Amino acid sequence: MLRPLAVLVCLCLFPLTAPEAGAQQAFAPPQNLRVIDTPSDSGEGLTVLWARAGYDAPEVRYQIMLGDGAEKKMVAEFPADSHYVRDSRWPWWTRVDRPDAHQFNLKSGKGLELKNGTPYAVAVAVVKGAERVEAAPVQAVPAPNWVNWNQMNNLLLVLLFGAVVFGSIRAAKRREIFLRRIPGLDAVDEAIGRATELGKPILYLTGAGDMSEPSTIAAAVILGRVAKRVAAYETDLLVPHRDPIVMAVCQEITKQSYLEAGKPDVFREDSNFFITTDQFSYTAAVDGIMLRRKPAANFFMGSYFAEALLLTETGASTGAIQIAGTDSDHQLPFFVTTCDYTLIGEELYAASAYLSREPIQLGTLRGQDFGKAFILVVLALGTLLATVGVLFATDLPMIVLDLFKDLK
Amino acid sequence: MIFLRRQLPLLITFVAGVVFAAQYYVPHPTSELMLTEVTKWLQIISGFALVLGVTSLFHIHAVKIRRKEPGWAYSLILYGGILGTIAAGFSYSFTAGQWVNGKETINGIVTAFGWIYSDMMVPLQGTMFAILAFFIASAAYRSFRARSREAALLLIAAIIVMMGRVPLGEMLLPVSGDVTQWILNVLNAAVRRAILIGISLGAVALSLKIIFGMERAYLGGGKE
């Protein structure tokens, strides 16, 4: 527990351009050599650490020697003014030495094999011209770890965001939350009404993803809300699928919606049907349905790829009212140009809340808004801190910036 | 029954959700192994689910043929296509002197199954993809008509990016290359990232709701 604190203190005390430690130091073997099992990894890795030397310069080279018996072989060689702790991708709370110390990670891969549980002797040599000195070898054993401490900032922020979402849901249960208008969702009723008046079906697509994708789940949830209204108007619903599991789930959702609307007799088992998993065969089939059945309204929800424009442009040519909602940012321009309404990105996830007005859904939306506000503040603060770090050549801003690193 | 239909799936979702969310933070090989195993299960389940899909497909088209609905001949062609491809996959290749067994080529000789795939399926897919070029042109024509300020802005940006993306355009208007890069790297990237942040937060919130059983619509609606 004390180590991250010590590293934090070092970050504060030793700026980026620390004074030349031991500038007058003679050409000696690397000092304070330590070899440890690489922390927070899946094993088969060792981390080599040694002190910065006064002779560190581009023309001087360090050599990493590795051996599991009497013999050692060179596994890496690099200029002496590189491979510092501060250059590593590790955040400050997992760093194992001062920022100006040297660090080299050995990992099983091309031309190098490290086995978990096997002791290895590692030495570091320094070469300058014809001179070469080597530190005494140090032994270490690679082992896999159970916790990736480098990702703890990610976990912390997920927990924080989760708490905000659940807090917002509780608040939404107590009082009404304002929801801005989303024209695309206001148009859902209009589209269903139009289809009913014209006596034409409604086409609903759940996208190219499978049930493991949040956008497909969101599309399936919205289908439930749309199907409920479709059932009330007794309009035909067509839901062609690319994934059999999504089809099975959507069949259940649609059935339940018809039950809730009090119209179980109108429900048709074959309103959800499978076409094919192949991208363009599916597109050709859906285009065919559009041209033959001429649906009055087309819904494109979920994730899409190259088929997006082929589908929406065909739909536009039939004169159908088209509502799209996708998180596929690369397809958004096509949807925007060819559909009457487009739910952009997060609006797809907000659609369920908008259509249902349930406190749980509304609270989640409010939580997301808090999350976005938090990210905006972090972006502004991060930009400022990073600029300060470069201007004043200090590592201090990294204390905050590391907290938001690699938040995938 | 309610336990099997509602509570058990919710329990499985909660346990699986928590375990696999935690898996992201566990680098140990056991954790990786678990993920690999479950991914294999998922593939097996998907394989079985395909039977559901194909059954649905056969059923829908059988009804169309039986009722002689408009366009029922296409359903007949679909039946012919599916059964013909299956037959070709299991047939005997007299040229190669052995059973095709789902192979596209045997000793360099293209089988009937391979011919269906390479000479029918692939060109048809290519044709569908090629149509995209014309659709892009027609969609662009409709949206780029400078009817409003936004459309005019879109038109100008599109012209600059197009000029900057082709050698001839850059030759005619040398500055277009740099302006294109600026539009893509600054304006476009900033907006895309903003959208992605919103999407990520939405996806995390939805996942949390599903894991903790607050979102149950994917189980078939109902509030019991």
List the helices and strands and how they pair.
The complex is a heterodimer of chains A (408) and B (224).
Chain A: H1 2-13, E1 34-37, E2 45-50, E3 61-67, E4 73-79, E5 102-107, E6 120-128, E7 131-134, E8 138-140, H2 152-174, H3 183-198, E9 202-205, H4 214-233, E10 237-241, H5 244-260, E11 272-274, H6 279-293, E12 297-301, H7 307-317, E13 321-326, H8 332-338, E14 341-344, H9 346-356, H10 359-391, H11 398-401
Parallel strand pairs in A: 9-10, 9-12, 10-11, 12-13, 13-14
Antiparallel strand pairs in A: 1-2, 2-5, 3-4, 3-6, 6-7, 6-8
Helix pairs in contact in A: 2-10, 3-4, 4-5, 4-9, 6-7, 9-10
Chain B: H1 2-23, H2 29-67, H3 72-90, E1 92-93, E2 98-99, E3 105-106, E4 109-110, H4 112-144, H5 149-165, H6 167-172, H7 176-211
Antiparallel strand pairs in B: 1-2, 3-4
Helix pairs in contact in B: 2-3, 3-4, 5-7
Features:
heterodimer; A: 408 residues; alpha/beta; Immunoglobulin-like; Rossmann fold; 2 domains; 6-stranded parallel β-sheet; 5-stranded antiparallel β-sheet; 41% helix; elongated; B: 224 residues; mainly alpha; two-stranded antiparallel sheet; 4% strand
Query: How many domains in all of chain A?
Result: 2
Strand content of chain A: 15-25%
**Multimerization state:** heterodimer
Q: Strand count, sense and closure of the main sheet of chain B?
A: 2 strands, antiparallel
The CATH C-level class name of the largest domain in chain A: Alpha Beta
Coarse structural class of chain A: alpha/beta
**Tally of DSSP helical segments of chain B:** 7
- Count of DSSP strands of chain B: 4
Helical percent range of chain A? Answer: 40-55%
Q: Which parts of chain B are unreliable, with pLDDT below 50 for 5 consecutive residues or more?
A: none
Structural class of chain B: mainly alpha
**Biggest interface, and residues per chain?**
A-B, 84 and 63 residues
Order of helices and strands of chain A: HEEEEEEEEHHEHEHEHEHEHEHHH
H and E string of chain B: HHHEEEEHHHH
Question: Radius of gyration of chain B, Cα only, in angstroms?
Answer: 27 Å
Span between N and C termini of chain B? 12 Å
| Rg value of chain A | 30 Å
SS elements, strand count of chain A: 14
Mean pLDDT of chain A: 90
Major sheet: arrangement of strands of chain A: 11-10-9-12-13-14
